[in-house]
Specification:
This protein folds into two domains: 105 residues, Arc Repressor Mutant, subunit A (Orthogonal Bundle); 293 residues, Alpha/Beta hydrolase fold, catalytic domain (Rossmann fold, 3-Layer(aba) Sandwich), CATH 3.40.50.1820. Helix 2 packs across helix 4, helix 3 crosses helix 4 and helix 6 packs antiparallel against helix 7. The protein contains 13 helices and ten strands. Strands 3-4-6-5-7-8-9-10 form an eight-stranded mixed sheet, sandwiched between helices. The protein has a two-stranded antiparallel ribbon with strand order 1-2. Helices cover 45% and strands 14% of the residues. The protein is an alpha/beta fold and 402 residues long.
Length: 402
């Protein structure tokens, strides 16, 4: 180093080090409140209670030594100090998230964890006649996670259908009717409390999950009729159909499409929109079957066909309600759709084809793809960043649509 450079370096004072007690959770809380300018929405976004979020913000302000937010009864605003911190905090958090995601991707930790969770279910891919054991394994997978603690869960009879109602703190008007996955032969409202709870917290909206009848004991149209009854019950509660979203994952997403077509066929009021997570809609096998990258991550082949056979029980495939891809003209007039899928999902082509055919019928259909290698990735929201991002997009769709 030259003498001139040494002299310049000597004149530069080092910035004071940030207090060691400042943690990433403090910064995440601050950024969420700064972006939402609302403690309730920020708390739901972070899956925290409002008191816990307020404590973190106050703790950060004490550690920094100045107010970051100006609070009043009706509004939250950034102070000059808060505005100065926001951009740098965002960049810091983005860099940390990128570093962690890169490390996890290289190490394969998230994919391996998903594979371990799916394996007991996927082991039944080639077993015949063991649907009860399969259903039990699926419930055991769902039980690995807990719903967000701030979401209240209440049993309810929705149009005579046993259901669960999941209520976030300070819910917005309206409701989301979520139809669970499970190949029409497994799954339950109870098992889906974690995903439905995350959906309620993210959207700040009450979510109702009907325990619709399952095949083979109750084949088509039992699941559709139960779901329609739950939807009509919501309207009977005084909820405007323009404030209702129907959502579903996997076969539940296919069921959601069937419900929309059933409602349209019977000239009932349509909901504001629908969210279709990793949709399984091709019960007629019109599209070429894709081979999954990792057969342990999904339910495939023979098992899917058995599920469809149990569900349809001989019902003809010339019915658009069970075969929307074969009769795309039936989708004309449907409300906006948000379709989400993983790029490594073996049913990705179904999501893509559904979006394309809906758009051909002038239906507003947004297709969002996430870099994950498993079907039903939303189930893994507690540890999968892509699932959390997908739920945030669902929340944006619900807010804009209802």
């Amino acid at each position: 180093m030259s003498d001139l450079n040494k002299e310049a370096a000597a004149r530069v004072l080092a910035l004071p080090q940030a207090p060691d007690a400042i943690e990433l959770r403090h910064l995440r809380s601050f950024v969420a409140v700064a972006e939402e300018l609302n403690f309730g929405r920020a708390a739901a976004r972070l899956y925290l209670s409002q008191p816990a979020l307020s404590r973190q913000i106050r703790g950060l302000e004490r550690l920094i030594g100045c107010d970051l937010l100006s609070r009043s009864t009706h509004r939250v605003e950034l102070t000059l100090a808060g505005d100065a911190l926001l951009d740098k905090a965002r960049k810091l958090l983005a860099d940390v998230d990128d570093a962690v995601s890169t490390a996890r991707s290289v190490g394969g930790a998230l994919s391996e964890r998903a594979a371990r969770l799916w394996k007991p279910v996927a082991d039944h891919n080639h077993a015949d006649g063991d649907e009860r054991r399969l259903a039990a394994e699926f419930e055991a997978l769902l039980a690995k996670f807990d719903p967000p603690p701030e979401v209240a869960i209440r049993p309810v009879k929705a149009g005579g259908v046993p259901s669960l109602r999941l209520i976030p703190e300070n819910p917005r008007p309206g409701a989301v009717l979520h139809l669970h996955g499970g190949g029409f032969v497994m799954g339950s409202a109870y098992g889906y409390r974690p995903l439905a709870g995350a959906l309620a917290a993210a959207t700040e909206t009450t979510v109702v999950v009907p325990d619709y009848n399952l095949a083979p004991e109750a084949p088509f149209p039992a699941a559709v009729e139960d779901s329609v009854q739950a939807y009509l019950w919501l309207l009977d509660q005084g909820i405007d159909p323009g404030q209702v979203i129907i959502s579903g994952d996997s076969s539940g997403a296919g069921l959601a499409v069937s419900v929309l077509l059933w409602i349209k066929r019977h000239e009932l009021p349509l909901p504001a929109g629908a969210v279709l997570m990793c949709p399984w809609v091709d019960l007629a096998y019109l599209l070429p079957e894709s081979v999954p990258r990792d057969p342990q991550l999904v339910i495939t082949g023979r098992l899917m066909r058995r599920c469809v056979d149990h569900y349809l029980a001989g019902h003809p495939l010339d019915d658009p309600i069970v075969n929307p891809l074969g009769f795309p003209e039936a989708m004309a007039g449907l409300p906006p759709l948000l379709i989400q899928a993983g790029t490594g999902d073996h049913l990705l082509n179904q999501a893509q084809d559904l979006a394309e055919r809906a758009r051909e019928q002038a239906v507003e259909a947004a297709l969002e793809l996430y870099p994950v290698a498993t079907h039903g990735f939303h189930l893994f929201w507690p540890f999968l960043p892509e699932a959390m991002r997908a739920l945030e997009q669902v929340a944006d769709f619900v807010r804009k649509t209802t």
